[in-house]
């Protein structure tokens, strides 16, 4: 039963690696295009061009609300809340993280990005309710 929650967790971890690879590619391109030198970014990454900074910021975002996601996944498995509904919520959350990244490193449309983020937070809240109900 708990395997249903392992798969979206593994998918999100894979996505985090994908985002890190995007950061690497964009930073490499910045060096190759001579938009930045090593000395420019030795202390702070502010000198990278915007595409590289957006990717790096998104990578940092992967350690904000996803921390809540991973905690809820572990709690759900521990308290017996690993239902199909919880799995669907988990997959929906992963989808919001992917969509958030695509907007963040793409158009960076703040209104759309914020809406996607809000949906993700609402999904996390739903997962939290599922865990609380299982505990009660």
UniProtKB/TrEMBL annotation:
Primary location group: membrane
One Pfam family hit: MAPEG
Domain of life according to the entry: Bacteria
Chain ranges passing through the membrane: 6-25, 67-94, 114-135
InterPro entries for this protein: MAPEG-like_dom_sf, Membr-assoc_MAPEG
Cellular localization per UniProt: Membrane
UniProt keyword Transmembrane helix present: yes
Key words, A-Z: Membrane, Transmembrane, Transmembrane helix
GO CC aspect terms: membrane
Protein name: MAPEG family protein
Organism whose genome encodes this protein: Bosea vaviloviae
């Amino acid at each position: 039963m708990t395997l249903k929650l392992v798969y979206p967790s593994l998918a999100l971890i894979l996505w985090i690696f994908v985002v890190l690879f995007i950061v690497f590619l964009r930073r490499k391109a910045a060096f190759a295009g001579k938009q930045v030198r090593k000395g420019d970014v030795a202390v702070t990454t502010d000198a990278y061009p915007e595409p590289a900074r957006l990717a790096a910021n998104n990578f940092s975002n992967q350690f904000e609300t996803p921390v809540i996601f991973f905690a809820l996944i572990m709690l759900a498995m521990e308290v017996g809340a690993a239902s199909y509904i919880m799995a669907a919520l988990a997959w929906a959350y992963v989808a919001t993280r992917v969509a958030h990244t695509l907007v963040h490193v793409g158009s960076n449309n703040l209104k759309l990005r914020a809406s996607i983020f809000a949906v993700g937070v609402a999904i996390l809240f739903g997962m939290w309710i599922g865990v609380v109900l299982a505990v009660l």
